[in-house]
Amino acid sequence: MSGLIPLKAQARPRAGKGAARQTRREGNVPAVIYGDNKTPETIALDYNELWKQFLKGHFTSTAFEIDVEGTKHIVLARDIQLDPVRDTPLHVDFQRVGKDGIIRVSIPVRFTNDAASPGLKRGGVLNIVRHTVELYAPATAIPEHLDADVAGLDIGDSIKISAIKLPEGVRPVITDRDFTIATI
Fold it and tell me: What is the pTM of this model?
């Protein structure tokens, strides 16, 4: 499980195109924190610090603790605008969540024990139906990935969501059926 990733930010007194451009010229990325029935806050994040977190992957399914000049906010990145040429961040929208908040996130599925699958040994192919699964998870305990074990599966077998052990407090968004993750 991933914990809260700390980020430092400064408050931006002005909003708008001119203020955002000035923030970028200073080497920062403009952002906004909204939600949790509080007023939105415009902030500026250090470009290098944000870029490192963005390159790690799973940016929109990672909970961050943003320190805005002494005030801490638990947030989830909901939108990131990228430069169309350089693919660098231009602006980030963060949604504020409570410590006990349950959020909807898309979590990648990792397949393990390929060598122990008789179906794959005999020439079968792992057909991944869902690369990610939509889950409800606590804001402070979002899993980095789900592990799907393919050991013992033969040709024609499938892995369903019920076969994957979910961490405590995590449940799938789709609950009306036992959907397929992958087949062999």
Answer: 0.72
Q: Is 99 left (phi over 0), alpha (psi -120 to 50) or beta?
A: alpha
pLDDT-based confidence at residue 37 (cuts at 50, 70, 90): confident
Q: Are 5-96 and 102-183 equal in CATH topology?
A: no
Task: Specify the DSSP element, H or E, that contains 24.
Answer: helix 17-25
Mean pLDDT of the chain: 88
If phi over 0 gives left and psi between -120 and 50 gives alpha, with beta otherwise, what is residue 130?
beta
Paired tokens of 7: 């980020």
Superfamily assignment of 5-96 in CATH? Ribosomal Protein L25; Chain P (2.40.240.10)
Q: Report which of 112, 181, 101 is spatially closest to residue 152, judged by C-alpha positions.
A: 112
- Specify the pLDDT at position 1: 39
Q: Distance between CA atoms of 152 and 41, rounded to whole angstroms?
A: 52
- DSSP-derived pairing of the beta strands 71-82 and 89-96: antiparallel
Quick one: tokens of 176? 């009306």
Fold adopted by 102-183: RNA Polymerase Alpha Subunit; Chain A, domain 2 (2.170.120)
Residue 42 in tokens: 């415009």
pLDDT of residue 87: 86
Q: What are the sequence ranges of the domains in the chain? A: 5-96, 102-183
